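Here's what a typical entry looks like (ArsC family reductase):
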Amino acid sequence: MIILYGIKNCDTIKKARRCLEQQALAYQFHDYRTDGLDAELLARFAAELGWKNLLNTRGTTWRKLADSDKAEINETRALALMLEQPALIKRPVLQHNEQLLLGFDEQAYLALSASSEK
């Protein structure tokens, strides 16, 4: 089973969804804004992918944060910010069975198609 986590209007999410659809891979899309995000799921992402990798410091949401929120960022503070503002999570997070992939990598997504054909 494939679950794609993100925000529907994100350009990278659109690319990822298009790639999955072109490969005829069935997937479930989980939009943080409409479907929610709980601390347990975010903690799993952080444990497996690393909270620093998960935190999107290149996006508009990060740039709009107060300097006091960005100063001396640590895992606890980063996870709290990501729960408050899911747009701070690098996108997409793709779950294929028990494996997580962070970000869109077309070759990795094409490999999903190959592995599901076996």
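The chain has a mean pLDDT of 93.

More examples are in the samples folder.
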